[in-house]
Structures are given as structure tokens and as C-alpha cells.
């Protein structure tokens, strides 16, 4: 197998940097003619996967919308995750897990173990119990060529109060998280390759204000905030500067609102909008 970082790089080269978010909000289910139920989120997810296959490299099912329907919803999620991987998409489970180390290890096992019911290619995780508490997840991901996306600077406005707070050394919390991840990637990443521990940096955030800086080795940056939250694809290089080349741009509602008949075209159009967005941006 190839590392998640390198599989991400290959997916971006082949399909572009769009990630299709699978967020079956209740009004979207209604607009798609589906019920607010486990069966509804299953159909919504499977149809989105079918439309994304061959048109995008990544999908990101948002776990909450499946969890909402209990065991049946989670069974639907299992099907959606498996269908995405079978379709050749890189599947990022957006569960934002984070806990003390021993508990975090069990979450990592649930999402990143080959053959596990929730097996995904990568998992979103929160570092706010300490980046070190995620070590077991990083090790497991490395052992199985999986990926982890660590929340560094999230797209929501409430995040700034915590994430832009500064340490005694004058660095922002986001900057500390990013520097720690870069150091961890450097230990296990081959020269010239992308690291497999990615960062989440929202497209609504100015990375300079957030105290971030281009890091090395390069690693995938999951970038939500485009589309519904207001960030524009044509401003990608303005937003991410020298980090643009590894950005994976995630959109959910802006694409999903096209409905079941329009979703394939909406994905193709969104992919095209990012096609030239980071041209000329050097690998950092
Ligand atoms: O980790 C995420 O994906 C995430 C991080 C972040 O900083 N902001 C953010 O919006 N997200 C997720 O990205 C998706 C955004 O959805 P849309 O606003 O509809 O494109 C949701 O599933 C959010 O939970």
C-alpha cells in the first residue's frame, strides 16, 4: 500500500482538489425526496458517492447526520463508507474524535483499522485534549497507510477565542498544533512525499492571523468553508498562499443542494472551479 499522504497527492493530481461533503441535513433530505430516517441518509449517501465517483477524488461523510438515527443510521454509514472506498474515492470520515490517549486509541481502531465496520481512509480528530493524546491514532494510521486530519484552525467564527489564544512563547494554539504535526510528519515521511497527518484549516480563516506558516514536509490541508460558508474557489491561492498546493477543498451544502438530478453536474462544476485555482503554487 501507499501512504495516505501519497494517495492524496495522486488523487489531487488525477481528479483535482475537490472533496464532496456528505452532510444529509434534514431540509436536503426533503428536497431529495427522501425521508429523515436511516434509509434516507443511506440513499442520500450512496447517490452522492455514485455521482462523485470519477468526478472527484475525495468524499467526506459527516458522521453526525448518520449517528442521529442510532444503530440503523450507523449501519447506513458503514454502507456509505464501504461504497466510497469501493468506488475508488478517498473517504474521510468526519467524526472529529478526540479524547485521552487510551480512549482515543479505541476511536482510532474503530475508523482506521482495515476490515473494521467503519473503516475509512482518514479520520478528522480534535487536538484540544493535547496533540500528544492523539499519538496512538497517528501510529495506527501510519501502520495501516491511513490518514488523520487534525483540527488546526477551524472555519467557524467561535473558534478564534480558543485557537488564536497565544502561548507563553507568543505562538497561537493553531500555530503550536501545526508545528507539532509538521515535526511528527517529518519523522516518518520520505523525502519529497506528502505527510499523512493532515491539518484542517478553514477557508474562512486568514492563516497569517491564525499564526500558521507554510510547513514541511507538505501534508494535505482539509479546507472546509468554501461554498455555503462563503469562501470562494477562485480565491484559494489568496487564502492559502504557499500552502495552496496541498489543499483539499471541501464543500457540502453548496453541492448537495443541487438535488439528486443535478448532483453529478454540480460536482463536475465545482471540480472545474478548483482545477486551476492553485496553478503555479509551489510545493512547500
Ligand atoms: O472537519 C471539517 O470537515 C470541518 C472543519 C471546519 O473547520 N469547518 C467545517 O465546516 N467542517 C465540516 O465541513 C462541513 C461543511 O459543510 P458546508 O458548510 O455545507 O460546506 C461540515 O460537515 C462541517 O462539520
UniProtKB/TrEMBL annotation:
Pfam families: OMPdecase
Gene3D superfamilies: Aldolase class I (3.20.20.70)
E.C. no: 4.1.1.23
Pathway noted in the entry: Pyrimidine metabolism; UMP biosynthesis via de novo pathway; UMP from orotate: step 2/2
Keyword check for Thylakoid: no
Catalytic activity line of the entry: orotidine 5'-phosphate + H(+) = UMP + CO2
Principal EC category: lyase
Annotated ranges, domain Orotidine 5'-phosphate decarboxylase: 17-267
Keyword terms, alphabetized: Decarboxylase, Lyase, Pyrimidine biosynthesis
Similarity annotation: Belongs to the OMP decarboxylase family. Type 2 subfamily.
Protein name as it appears in the record: Orotidine-5'-phosphate decarboxylase
Amino acid at each position: 500500500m501507499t501512504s495516505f499522504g501519497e494517495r492524496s497527492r495522486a488523487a489531487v493530481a488525477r481528479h483535482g482538489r475537490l472533496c464532496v461533503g456528505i452532510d444529509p441535513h434534514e431540509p436536503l433530505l426533503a428536497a431529495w425526496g427522501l425521508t429523515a430516517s436511516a434509509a434516507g441518509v443511506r440513499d442520500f449517501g450512496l447517490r452522492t458517492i455514485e455521482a462523485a465517483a470519477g468526478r472527484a477524488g475525495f468524499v467526506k461523510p459527516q458522521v453526525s447526520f448518520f449517528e442521529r438515527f442510532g444503530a440503523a443510521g450507523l449501519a447506513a454509514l458503514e454502507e456509505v463508507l464501504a461504497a466510497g472506498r469501493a468506488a475508488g474515492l478517498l473517504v474521510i470520515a468526519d467524526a472529529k474524535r478526540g479524547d485521552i490517549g487510551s480512549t482515543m486509541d479505541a476511536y482510532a481502531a474503530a475508523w482506521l483499522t482495515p476490515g473494521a465496520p467503519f473503516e475509512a481512509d482518514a479520520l478528522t480528530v480534535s487536538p484540544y485534549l493535547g496533540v500528544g493524546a492523539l499519538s496512538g491514532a497517528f501510529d495506527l494510521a501510519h501502520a495501516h497507510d491511513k490518514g488523520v486530519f487534525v483540527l488546526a484552525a477551524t472555519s467557524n467564527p467561535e473558534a478564534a477565542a480558543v485557537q488564536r489564544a497565544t502561548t507563553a512563547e507568543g505562538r497561537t494554539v493553531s500555530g503550536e498544533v501545526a508545528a507539532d504535526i509538521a515535526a511528527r510528519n517529518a519523522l516518518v515521511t520520505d523525502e519529497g512525499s506528502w505527510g499523512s497527518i493532515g491539518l484542517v484549516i478553514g477557508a474562512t480563516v486568514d492563516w497569517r492571523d491564525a499564526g500558521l506558516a507554510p510547513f514541511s514536509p507538505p501534508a494535505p490541508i482539509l479546507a472546509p468553508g468554501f461554498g455555503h460558508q462563503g469562501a470562494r474557489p477562485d480565491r484559494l491561492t489568496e487564502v492559502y498562499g504557499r500552502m495552496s498546493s496541498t489543499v483539499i477543498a471541501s464543500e457540502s451544502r453548496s453541492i448537495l443542494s443541487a438535488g439528486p438530478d443535478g448532483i453529478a453536474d454540480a460536482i463536475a462544476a465545482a471540480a472545474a472551479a478548483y482545477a486551476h485555482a492553485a496553478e503555479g503554487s509551489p510545493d512547500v
